[in-house]
Amino acid sequence: MSLLAGNPLSVVALPFALALLIAAGGKKFVSITQWLAVVAPVAAALAGVGVLASSVPTAAQDVAWLSQGGSVVTAGLAIDNLTAVMLVIVGVVATCVVVFSIGYMADDDARPRYFALLALFTGAMSMLVMASSLVTLFIGWELVGACSYLLIGFWYRKPSASAAAVKAFLTTRIGDVGMLLGLALLWRVTGSLSIPEVLAAAPEIGAGIVTVIALLLFVGAAGKSAQFPLHIWLPDAMEGPTPVSALIHAATMVAAGVFLVVRMWPVFEVAPIALDVVLVVGVVTAFFAATVACVQLDIKKVLAYSTISQLGFMFAALGAGATGAAMFHLTTHAAFKALLFLGSGSVIHAVETQDIREMGGLLKKMPVTGTTWLIGVWALSGLPLLSGFFSKDGVIASVLHAAPLAGYALIAASLLTAFYAFRVTWFVFFGSYRGSAHPHEGGLVMTAPLIALAVPAIALGYFSAPFMQSLGHEAEALDPVVAGVSVTVAVIGVLLAAALYRLGVDRLETERTSLGPVHGVLFSAYGVDSFVTRFLVAPLEKVASWFYEVVDRKVIDGAAEGTAKLTMLFGRLASGLQTGETDVYASLLGVGFVVLMSIAIWLGR
Fold it and tell me: So what's the pLDDT on residue 338?
């Protein structure tokens, strides 16, 4: 443990090496090499625990990357308490996901590629969170994006999966361009990309420039963490294998945007306008996504919009200046949302559909999955006394103190959260089974990770004080008024879901007709996707098509083809001079001599 904590490079190098080994083993040895994918996240978790236990950060392992004038850009790794928390999250969740995947992906022929990509992602995510330089952070940032792209499109022969992968890649690239511009500005004004040096120089940067830098960094964070309006890629990302959704698109990579803002907090702290933007975007996203989740029929889509909403809670806390509350909710959310995604994977594996209308009564047929699912939705809803109760109340209290209207919006989003969480629960686990499959538990390799994740989903809330202290924050007592209001609205949401859906009785048609056109608006996520497709993607496709037809084919290809045709023409003309007659050659030589002499005389004037 101490060896790993003292050597950050090994935490990154190990999963990269394992990814190569798993890929090289191919199908022949996959039954053995798939277990190697467990080693990487365990190592990451042990490194994080080692630093948290010793409370001594590791020295940065930096190397010079390039130099310009008197400035040197370094790339390096280090582990401090913030990094250690993220490593534990990545390690624990990834370990559970890899073990679960061994059962979930047992019949897939492409398992070597799958487990190699999981190991590669673990290394990339570890690099991102351990970066002591913004260069290293950006490399890790791009690598996790590449892994996400490859895993969303894992079943690439399926057109919808390929399209979803491209959509995710392009949407997050918009955010990455903003982030890259922010890093370029930081380099310009500070002459460094070392994180400690940049953070130390932040208070000295001019107010206007630092605001622009913070906003550009937030664009990157919003893209990676699926904040409105760059959220559109995450629901489609559910095309990937469900364990991938648990790891990358619920607990780790999508939380990287929150981590980025916390890591660069001294920059944001001196940019109040940027923090206001973060707060507004977070609140809008939290409420918007919660309303959309209330009418979805795909179990993974409900969880996808739930993730977007909960990330909005975290950004709202950051906008209110509560970095500790945001990180604590990030940690608890990683546990209970990974639990819910793996629970949905267990259900999908058993019933062979993602449509909640074809489920029901699964609590009796799948008791471990059902019980752990109930723990997850209880925590997600913020009900006492599980982890989500403590972390979400911390977020709401912080936002209420900084911006009361925003706090009220989060309270409303909390009611919706409890409603959609238990709406799905009634339809999937209660009532009578409405499908045609024969559902059953997936075996110990799939149930053990659910039980393992249920433990932090229950218990993490009771460690808020040491968690806050490890990040350098004072632990705040639970506000009884906020807690009372939060619990009340959550209970209302649960009871409303129970009353409307009668513990699993199929009332979805009633839901659709009673809401009228509102249902269509919510089901289509307010038409944001259609708007982007019509007014952004379609025009860009036309521009790209014009460039292809005019610039690429006619200008570039035309120039190349024209050169070839011109060469052929000169060749034909020259070949006509090859007559084999000596007097003709002598005449041409004489003409050439006269022309050259004339040019020489003219130039000599």
Answer: 95
3 state DSSP class of 105:
coil
What pLDDT score does 504 carry?
Answer: 47
Burial class (CB within 10 angstroms; exposed 0-12, middle 13-18, buried 19+) of 125: buried
Residue-number span of the structural domain to which 583 is assigned: 533-604
Give burial (CB, 10 Å; 0-12/13-18/19+) of 180.
middle
Note if the bond before 229 is cis, omega within 30 degrees. yes
Number of domains in the chain: 1
| Cα–Cα distance measured from residue 605 to residue 291, given in angstroms and rounded to the nearest whole number | 86
pLDDT digits (tens, 9 = 90+) for 183-218: 999 999 988 889 999 999 999 988 899 999 999 999
The position carrying tokens 């059902």 is 370
DSSP characters over 532-592:
HIIIIIHHHHHHHHHIIIIIIIIIIHHHHHHHHHHHHHHHHHHHHT----HHHHHHHHHHH
Buried-exposed string 242-255: b where 16+ CB fall within 10 A, e elsewhere:
bbbbbbbbbbbbbb
User: Does residue 381 form part of some domain?
Assistant: no
DSSP code string of 27-60: TTTHHHHHHHTTHHHHHHHHHHHHHHHHT-PPPP
Residue 595 within a domain: yes
> Do 92 and 252 contact (CB within 8 A), yes or no?
no
Torsion-angle region of residue 440: left (phi > 0), alpha (psi -120 to 50) or beta? Answer: beta
Q: Give pLDDT, residue 563.
A: 76
Which pLDDT tens digit goes with each residue over 233-284?
A: 999 999 999 999 998 888 789 999 999 999 999 999 999 999 999 999 999 9
Residue 561 inside a domain? The answer is yes
- Cα separation, 69 vs 408, in Å, equals 52
Q: What is the pLDDT of residue 374?
A: 96
Q: pTM of the entire structure?
A: 0.89
Q: Low-confidence residues of the chain, pLDDT below 50?
A: 504-505
DSSP code of 453? H
C-alpha torsion sign, points 94, 98, 99, 100: positive
Residue 569 lies in a domain: yes
